[in-house]
Amino acid sequence: MSPASLMSLIRPLSPALSSAMTLGLMALGLMTIGLSAQLEAVPLSYQQRVHQAELYVESKLYEQAVKELKELERSPEGSQDVRVSELLSLAYYHSNDINKALYYLRKARQLTEDEGFKARLTQNYQQWIKVFGLVQFASINEVPSGAIELNSDRKILNPKRRAAFKVAQRQLRRGVTLPLSMYLPFGSYVANSVPFQIKPSYPSANVELSLIPVKDEAVSTKTSKWVYITLGGVALIATALGGYYLLSPKQVSGTTVMPTFN
Fold first, then answer.
1. d(C-alpha 166, C-alpha 6), whole Å
2. Strand partners, 230
3. Terminal CA-CA length for the chain
4. Which of 4, 69, 238, 245 lies at 20 to 30 Å from 175 by C-alpha?
5. Where are the domains of the chain?
6. Is 191:197 a contact under the CB 8 Å cutoff?
């Protein structure tokens, strides 16, 4: 019976009895509120938080998923949890950040020993990478940090590729440290007035340019955290800039530098 129904029964009673019952109901309500507050204050366990992140991904709440998973990743358990890395790869992929998605896809594969799971990750990799190519940016002067203004020569019609380009464009505008490499959709581009193309089955594009100064130098020069995961001669780096890129330590002339699963 609802509180409202109980109150309707109280009204016909004597004032004293009605007042006593009203006080009792108020006390019961306060106890219920207090219990609810206690339940809400109980922190979720690690496993519950991972499950919550899974629900975020399944519900297409990718921003919330990334926030939860990045917090989990900072814990000793989360940094070695293949589920956290796989969920981050999915959340970033569906958020159109192909570079971070590939970084966490590879990290997940490094963490698991399950061959079936590795095969699934490889399948995701092959599916995701089929319309992207690698570009390597280098500075033509002694200024290694700054911004890159990236534009496409033609309108990118495919919504997924266009969204991925926009994400990369924003990252480059915020400021980067060279040299770096990153994936972009196949197409023709101009970076700081330097034209280049990324084509299927072609060697990775090498672009030498001058960087644009950024107002907040700390944004472009701070690279306090570097995480390397070797993969077929290509190293993955994660920088404190918040962007995750693919960095090739050595470009082999005349060959395509495309990371593949070992």
1. 59
2. 235
3. 65
4. 69
5. 46-128, 131-247
6. no
What is the pairing mode between strands 229-231 and 234-238? Answer: antiparallel
Residue keyed to tokens 């020569």: 153
Q: pLDDT digits over 1-50, tens only? A: 555 554 455 455 555 555 655 555 555 555 555 545 554 567 899 999 99
Kindly indicate the confidence band of residue 187, based on its pLDDT and cuts at 50, 70 and 90.
Answer: very high
Partnered with residue 194 across adjacent β-strands are 191
Name which of 195, 215, 214 is nearest 205 in CA terms: 195
Name the token pair of 34.
């207090």
Q: What is the CATH number of domain 46-128?
A: 1.25.40
Q: Which residues pair with 229 in a beta bridge?
A: 236
For residues 50 and 91, what is the distance between their CA atoms, to the nearest angstrom? Answer: 13
- Strands (DSSP E) found in 140-193: 145-146, 150-152, 176-177, 180-185, 187-191
Beta-ladder partners of 250:
none
- The candidate with the shortest Cα–Cα distance to 183, out of 105, 69, 113, is 105
Indicate the helix (H) or strand (E) that contains 175: none
Decide the pairing of beta strands 180-185 and 229-231: unpaired
Work out the mean pLDDT of the chain and round it to a whole number. Answer: 78
**Among the listed residues 129, 135, 125, the one whose alpha carbon sits nearest the alpha carbon of residue 247:** 135
CB 97 within 8 A of CB 164: yes
